[in-house]
Amino acid sequence: MPAADPDRLPVFVYGTLRPGGRNHRAHLAGRTTAVRPGTLPGAALHDGPGYPYLVACPGRSVHGELVTLDPARYAEVLAALDHLEDCRPDGSGEYVRRRLEVTGAGGEPEPAWVYLAGAAVEAALRERPALIASGDWLRR
Questions:
Q1: Confidence grade of residue 4 (pLDDT, cut at 50, 70, 90)
Q2: Domains (ranges, CATH) in the chain?
Q3: Cα angle value 82/83/84 (rounded, 5°)
Q4: Cβ contacts of residue 82 below 8 Å, gap of 6+?
Q5: Which of 107, 94, 78, 109 shows the shortest CA–CA distance to 13?
Q6: How far apart are CA 45 and CA 135, in angstroms?
Q7: What is the pTM of this model?
């Protein structure tokens, strides 16, 4: 189900921000209203030094969760996630945040915020891939 406010999208989490992950506890636990399964088509999951990166890749998909942030804390939590992911307004950070279509458990695509590898990280991964074939960080 799409978010009512076009700027207050759920966040697609696929690594350490997933429930049970160390960054979920630190940044999302108690700050969400819903967590649902989701799949991002057209992306590949790569193993970084202790955390994953997403890179656009036709024919692949990544599994994770769609996390609905508590509306009262939405801006605060999204800013904290941007900081955690080194997501910079100019796009030069370790990750970039993009609005992409994620397929929910019911099979319907919906918009969500997704953190992708930033340009420098993506270039390095394309040169030396560290692909997680399952597309699932929990099954790596």
A1: low
A2: 11-135 (3.10.490.10)
A3: 95
A4: 97
A5: 78
A6: 5
A7: 0.93
